[in-house]
Write a structure and sequence with these properties.
Elements (H helix, E strand, L loop, with lengths): L3 H7 L19 H16 L2 E6 L5 H11 L5 E6 L6 H11 L8 H17 L4 E6 L7 H10 L11 E7 H6 L6 H5 L1 E7 L7 H11 L9 H11 L3 H17 L7 H11 L1
Parallel strand pairs: 1-4, 1-5, 2-3, 3-4
Length: about 270
């Protein structure tokens, strides 16, 4: 719930830096736009791709936006976050997302999933797109299973787009020889670095407009401090903005300053 102090002091209609945001309202910073373009390329080619980034960089938001943009009459979009580290649970989650009742036998379950994918492609004329988040938690054998799952007609045909989303450590993991076969299957790899310092003012303005605020609420010094503290990662940037505005409102100030950002940093770290 939006703090009443902020509502009364700044005249906001909602929390401008809330994590709950519609994909259509996301701010399109440069790296975000580039990632979206690469994802559409991947989906058009029906390949396997990898998106990495630090926690809070905005990679999941970008993927959500692309998945939501796909027409349900042409694509079957699926977003998965593994509930455990077992391949059985991953397959079961995928089967449920495909509208299936997962079979108990793992071999039969894989066949069930592959049959449904073929049905979607050939009978329904739909192109399946499966996004799997938090892949840095998955073991090597699970990654191999994902690669095998995409093999149709002895590797001659790609029927499903697989998009893997993970933290920076996963990109380093892919450099090991144990993952060479998996790595060679990746059509795209993109590392999302976050927002640039030059984009922060426009980002903040965009977020404030969503909440009905059309005047600047952060000084230039505050914006510098916000970027330095967040390193351009959207999640910590949003959190710091909220806390800095709260600190400013408690002092009845019209804008948040660098001092208010420093207070926000002390409260959130």
């Amino acid at each position: 719930m939006l703090n009443e102090t902020l509502t009364q002091h700044f005249g906001m209609t909602k929390d401008p830096f809330d994590r709950a945001i519609e994909t259509t309202e996301l701010f399109e910073f440069a790296a975000f736009k580039e990632l979206e373009a690469r994802l559409h390329y991947l989906i058009d080619r029906q390949g396997m791709g990898l998106v990495t980034g630090e926690v809070g960089a905005g990679k999941t938001s970008a993927v959500r936006r692309v998945l939501h943009s796909l027409h349900p009459g042409t694509h079957k979009a699926i977003y998965l976050v593994p509930s455990s580290l077992s391949i059985r649970d991953l397959y079961s989650s995928l089967a449920v997302a495909l509208g299936l009742e997962p079979l108990s036998n793992r071999v039969k379950l894989v066949a069930q999933i592959r049959t449904e994918i073929e049905r979607l492609v050939y009978a329904k004329k739909l192109r399946p797109v499966v996004a799997i988040d938090e892949v840095q938690l998955l073991r090597t054998e699970i990654l191999d299973e994902i690669r095998i799952l995409t093999n149709f007609d002895m590797d001659s045909t790609n029927l499903v787009t697989i998009l893997l989303i993970g933290q920076t450590e996963f990109r380093r993991k892919m450099a090991f020889s144990a993952h060479e076969a998996f790595s060679q299957r990746l059509l795209i790899r993109y590392h999302l670095d976050g927002i640039k310092r030059s984009e922060v003012p426009d980002y903040i303005t965009h977020q404030l407009h969503r909440a009905g605020v059309h005047i600047p609420l952060f000084t230039d010094g505050a914006i510098d401090a916000l970027f330095q503290a967040s390193k351009g990662m959207l999640r910590p940037l949003n959190l710091l903005c909220s806390h800095a505005l709260l600190a400013a409102s408690l002092e009845r100030k019209p804008q948040a300053t660098a001092d208010h950002v420093h207070i926000a940093v002390s409260e959130t770290t």
